Amino acid sequence: MAGNDWINSYLEAILDAGPGIDAAKASSLLLRERGSFSPTRYFVEEVITGFDETDLYKTWVRAAAMRSLQERNTRLENMCWRIWNLARKKKQIEGEEALGISKSRLERERARRDATADMSEDLSEGEKGDANNDMPTHGDSNRGRMPRISSAEAIEAWASQYKDRKLYIVLISIHGLIRGENMELGRDSDTGGQVKYVVELARALGSMPGVYRVDLLTRQISAPDVDWSYGEPTEMLTPRTSDMHEMGESSGAYIIRIPFGPKDKYIPKELLWPHIQEFVDGALSHVMQMSKVLGEQIGGGKPVWPVAIHGHYADAGDSAALLSGALNVPMLFTGHSLGRDKLEQLLKQGRQTREEINVTYKIMRRIEAEELSLDASEIVITSTRQEIEEQWRLYDGFDVILERKLRARIKRGVSCYGRHMPRMVVIPPGMEFKDIASHDGDADGESEGNDDNPANPDPLIWSEIMRFFTNPRKPMILALSRPDPKKNITTLVKAFGECRPLRELANLTLIMGNRDDIDEMSSTNSSVLTTVLKLIDKYDLYGLVAYPKHHRQSDVTEIYRLAAKTKGVFINPAFIEPFGLTLIEAAASGLPIVATKNGGPVDIHKVLDNGILVDPHDQQAIADALYKLVSDKQLWARCRQHGLKNIHQFSWPEHCKTYLSKIFSCRPRHPHWQRRDDQYEDSEPDSPNDSLRDIKDISLNLKLSLDGGKSEDSGTVGNITGSADATAANGKENLENAVAKLSKGALGPAEKVSSGERTDHNSHKLPLLRRKYVMVIAVDSVVDADLISIIKSIFVASSDSMSGSLGFILATHLPVSEIHSLLTTGGMVSTDFDAFICNSGSDIYYPSSNSEDLIYPSELPFDLDIDYHSQIEYRWGGEGLKRTLVRWAATLNSQNGGKEIVTEDVEHSSTYCHSFQVKNPSLAPPIKELRKPMRSQALRCHVLYSHDGSKLNIIPVLASRSQALRYLFVRWGLQLPNMVVCVGESGDSDYEGLLGGVHKSVILKGSFNTVPSEVHSARGYPLSDVVAFDNPNILQIQGYGANDIKFALEKLGILKK
């Protein structure tokens, strides 16, 4: 790395006085070039190589400037000891990581064996065979399965096939500065290639036949240090082509900026995590509103839901998972850059421990977001095979071999026993080629410039670059990237500087972002740029290397064109390049390429065949490849023509065609209940005495029995609530059958209820729409007696001035039977509440208002929302998951000498909640350790411990109490900003979700809060990484008396003072 030069230089200075070293040669020879062995030389070659410590470099500069020889030598000696300690630390970290990788590999193999064993009873011979008999790998080219767009006629055929579809697609990319024109690419690490990719993808999709509207959701930023345009709520993306399909009133592609996080501050992506829930709520409101608008325009009055929600990067993936779960629509994910890969690279450098990396990059929160994206995604889109084979393989939630087996079983119609794996699809990014026709000929006639055509002067950026060169007519070697160590720019400069024939034949242009002052750049970027400038001075490259300070995004095409005009070459020497969009841009301008052989350029070169791949660590190979292309004119022309001939395979229409084909392959999902909103339009919105208990939708009219019942009908209910043998699919069917049976008396024998129809019985009033505000009681950290007191205090605080306008929801990990017992103990009835969120968010019940509707005396007065189950059943493992969990519990108990650590709680389990009792929370594994084997076996679920650690609930992956609240918003129109969630100082495992979002939160502080179980202390990241406690919507109060609650409601604006 670049830092080795200065390490060598100051160690040479220390050793100048040593024996056997000629002082005249010491300054010009690196230690590795000296002939005799010495411990110091070994130290430099074997230990120091790879370090790039900016702080040590600064110390060396100060030490070298000291006049006192004794003090100078003392400082240098201390620096040697510092480096030695760093080297020891690096080796220790490498050893620990090697052990971790080995352990992870063994765990993955064990999980794969367990999953295969569960499915082995009906494995086909093809699945039992070796990898060669499995389905094709993810990275196999799509060309064998789907013809490419290779002509205008093919594009027209595609258009005619899909023109009648009117799709609504939502893209999410929340960090960086995003706008449609004059993108500030390179301004910071968050505003790079991803910004350009998502904007152009949205623009291209909006121009495709069959796509009516595309929304790109991002963050609204109204900060003084950024342009005002980033604060505009909506920006329409102007199509690049005039050949558009028929447009409608709200059609096209738009950037929608959602306000969340600090209102007047632009913050880096690492600091956005505490505000994700707020973004999700804002995005949900927008999508709901837009779906209704589109329904009026093109849906015949019915909402037009998004056909897919596509998250870009980990933060947007986390958001897309929650949003797709709330709306029940398919999710797509593109990682762009992956956290586990970055963590592995940083650990290899040895400069930081895992804990230090996590503090800086919030890397564990990012990795968990990527794992959740794997859990929730139908399709994961990658740019290259390398991303799948080298990066996604690091994740618990993805295994190439197991995915192939599952895909084969699905294709053959064989059960996967609740296992699911996202489909990995390689779709290279697209590009616009509006300027390519002007370069499609030979470049021989272009070298004379525009001297004969003064009316069309050269672009200004050309003169900015040419002023650096003594001979600007020489071929230009062009590199374009941020001054980042991983981009390997310093090796390129060394290769150019040390190859005299190359220097004599060509110039070098380095476009390294934009800068005003090197001292104002980040330490990493300034270090690389400083090293580049020193190398230019070292090799005396003045007049041969250009490094302009500024360029606009619109100048990039002109820079490529200038390089092609001089018969130059484009080079990307990065150590690893995930894709390499600049290589495609260069090829479209007629430039041959030299590129790293690590990553995406391999795939690009296979298609374009327009250059040479090199080892980025081999300086001589880089120099040889560049010299070969600029010196051999026939080779240069051949590479140029190959690139121009094949470049259309990377066009945006081609990308979008494949993209839409993958979306069409997803099973359509969307909210599908019958709303009958037209029946309620004339009702009074502020009627004070209506609540969810007033509705008699037959889908909610399911009465529960405490003892399971003995008759035929109650036996069906027992199967619903407690059967351990019913799968998720059978459970839903049983629920529907039970609804039909239980409603016979009300509907009459001639009427029929099926899963396809919902019959409203006496439903002349809509429920929670009548409530202006809703109080959600989700206090987990107190004993039952205190919880009862808190509920009564809330009732009293709101009874005077808010009677009828404030509704109540109880959200807890308890099953409904225990909630009933709690209410009975406290002298309350179910109709005191509007809804109950039970079993950690896997069930929603409503109170039954008429006791005469109860069929049996032992039944509970609650109505179950079956439609909510259809919302959360996505990827629910059912019986296969339960079988794996029971086996896990038995293994855990046996590992602890047969002691009962975790036991199955059959009585309190339900179709969508597998419950376990935790006998010894101190020996129970933390959530992250339990998620890992489940994900490794392709079982997707949400693992939750109760506050005291005595209860373990496993529920569907996109179910939680906070998601249940979003469901109530989507179904009943409950306004999230008018919701107040009351919690304790700590809570169950989903506590963090209850604190974020646009709703108000009240934290009850005091000695009545019990200490959380030890099992919560082993979370993967601190709570401050995901909760913004300085949010004005979060209020902390002491105590839970009626006056305390009233004060909180007044301060939050719910009650008037």
Automatic annotation (TrEMBL):
Indicate the segments forming the Sucrose phosphatase-like domain, all copies: 862-990
The pathway it acts in is: Glycan biosynthesis; sucrose biosynthesis; sucrose from D-fructose 6-phosphate and UDP-alpha-D-glucose: step 1/2
**Keyword list, A-Z:** Glycosyltransferase, Transferase
Alphabetically, the GO molecular function entries are: sucrose-phosphate synthase activity
Question: Domain Sucrose synthase first GT-B, which positions?
Answer: 168-389
The ranges of region (Disordered) come to 110-146, 436-456, 672-693
InterPro entries according to UniProt: Glyco_trans_1, SPP-like_dom, SPS, SPS_C, SPS_pln, Sucrose_synth_GT-B1
Q: What does this protein do?
A: Plays a role in photosynthetic sucrose synthesis by catalyzing the rate-limiting step of sucrose biosynthesis from UDP-glucose and fructose- 6-phosphate. Involved in the regulation of carbon partitioning in the leaves of plants. May regulate the synthesis of sucrose and therefore play a major role as a limiting factor in the export of photoassimilates out of the leaf. Plays a role for sucrose availability that is essential for plant growth and fiber elongation.
Q: How does it assemble?
A: Homodimer or homotetramer.
Q: What is this protein called?
A: Sucrose-phosphate synthase
Lineage of producing organism: Eukaryota, Viridiplantae, Streptophyta, Embryophyta, Tracheophyta
